Amino acid sequence: MPSRVEERAKTAGRVAPLSSRTKILEVAEARFARSGFGGVGLRDVAVAAGLSKSTLFHHFSTKEALYVEVIGRVLERVAERVEPAFACGAPPAERLLRVSDALVDAFAEHPTTAPLLLRSLFEALPQLEVDAAQQEGAISVLQRLIGHFQDLVREGIAARAFREVSVPDTTQTIIGAAVFHFASGELGEQQFGDVSLFSAEAVARRRREQRSFFQRALLFDPAL
Amino acid sequence: MPSRVEERAKTAGRVAPLSSRTKILEVAEARFARSGFGGVGLRDVAVAAGLSKSTLFHHFSTKEALYVEVIGRVLERVAERVEPAFACGAPPAERLLRVSDALVDAFAEHPTTAPLLLRSLFEALPQLEVDAAQQEGAISVLQRLIGHFQDLVREGIAARAFREVSVPDTTQTIIGAAVFHFASGELGEQQFGDVSLFSAEAVARRRREQRSFFQRALLFDPAL
DNA sequence: GTCTATACTACGATAGAC
DNA sequence: GTCTATCGTAGTATAGAC
Q: Which one, of B116, B137, B151, B220, lies nearest residue A212 by Cα?
C-alpha cells in the first residue's frame, strides 16, 4: 500500500521533498540490510533521518511494524521488476532468460534489495505479531513470487523444454544463486578484485553469466 | 583451535560430559543462526546453557569473541567436509560432483551450519575488533575455501572440461545455490510440502539435483 | 508532526564472595 | 568456575507540551 503521504509527495513537489515517513523508511532499509532486525537501534535510525525517536514512533507504532513495512517495500520493488517477465507469454525457455535478467536488474537497482530479500527468506523474526493485514500482505507477495518460479519450472518440464528436475529444488537453487550474488557485499567484491558488484559492466556480466548458467542447467537443448 | 578443555573432555569421559564452554557455544550457535548477532542476548544464552551471565563472561570476554568463535567452529566443520573433496585429485568434472556432494553433506549435518555460514558471508558485524588472531583465523578459513572453488573452476576451464565461464561469478553462483537451500528454513520446507530439508530422502534428492544442476551448467559434455 | 522528558526493561560488562 | 550484586548504557515505548 503506497499510503496517502507518499502519493501526496509525488503529486505535489517537483523534487519530491521526502516526507519524514519515507525518509525514515529509507534510513531503516539501509540499517536493516546491513545489521538485521536485532542489530538496529531506532535511536540511530531517527537521528540519521534527522528526527527524534518520538517522531519515529508517531509514524510507526512499533519496531516490527517499521521492519515489516521496509520488507514490504522491497518485495514490491522486486515483484514490479520480475512479474512482467513471468507474464511475458514467451515459451518457458525464453521466459527463464527474461526472469533471470529481471532478477539481476531488480537486485542491481538498490544495493539493499538483495540483502533484505535474503533476510526475509531465511531470518526468523521475534514472532512478528504485527497487524496481520500488512504482514500477510508482504508474505503473500513472497508466496506469489515463489509460485511464479514453480509454475515456470513446471511448465517448462511439461513442454519438454526443461529437464525433469525437482520443482522445489530448482526453485531454491535459482533464487539462492540469484540473490546471493548481490547480497555478498564486501566479500563478493573482494572476489572480483574490489570492483563494485553494481557497476554497469559488472551487472552486464552477471546477466550473461547467470543466463547461461540457468539455461545450460535446465534446458534440454541449450543452443539458444 | 580445539582448546584444552574439549580435548580433555574427549579423552576423559565416555559420554563426553560437555564442558560449560562447549555448552555455551552450542546454545549460542543455535541462537545466532536464528536471530543474528544483534538479535541474541547473552542472558538468554546463559540461562539456556544452565549458567549465569557472569559465567559466560568468564569463558568469553566479549559478545563478539563468542560470536567469532561460533563462526570459527562452523567454518572448520565445513572445511573438514569439503576440503577432502577439493583435494581428491580426480579430474575437474568429477571433483565438481564430489565438492557438490560434500557441500550438501556439510550443510545437512547441522541445521545451523548453512544459516551461520550465510551470515558470515553477507552480514556486516559491528566492526569486529576482536583479537586479530582468531578472527583472522576464521576469515582465513573462508578465504581458503573460496580459493579452492576458484581454483577448481579455473582448472576445469584450462582442462577444457568446463565452459569458459567467469570464475568469480561461477564461484558466487555455486556457493549461493548450495548454502541457500539449507538456510531457507521454514520457507524452504513449505515449498517442499512441509517435509524437513534434513530428512534422509530430502538430502539424497538434494545431492542428485544439485549435482546435475552444476554439472549441466558447467561441463562441456554433461553426459556423465 | 515534532519535540522534551521520562518509564521501564534489557543489554553488555565488571567486582568480588565462595 | 560459578555465583550474586551492581554499573552504566541503550533498548523500545509512552506522556504530554507546542
A: B220
pLDDT tens string A81-112:
999 999 999 999 999 999 999 999 999 999 99
Question: Mutate which of B112, B172, B199, B206 to test chain A, going by most A C-beta atoms within 10 A?
Answer: B172
The reply to whether A45 and A85 lie within a common domain is no
The answer to whether A176 contacts B172, with C-beta atoms less than 8 Å apart, is no
Residues A33, A37: Cα–Cα separation, whole Å: 9
Looking at the structure, tell me whether residues A49 and A103 fall in a common domain.
no
Residues B74 and B136 in one domain: yes
Whole-number Å distance between alpha carbons of B42 and B35: 13
Its pTM stands at 0.93
CA distance B73 to chain A (A): 19
**Residue A192 belongs to domain spanning:** 62-218
CA atoms within 13 A on the CB side of A166: 20
Q: Does residue A166 sit in helix, strand or coil?
A: coil
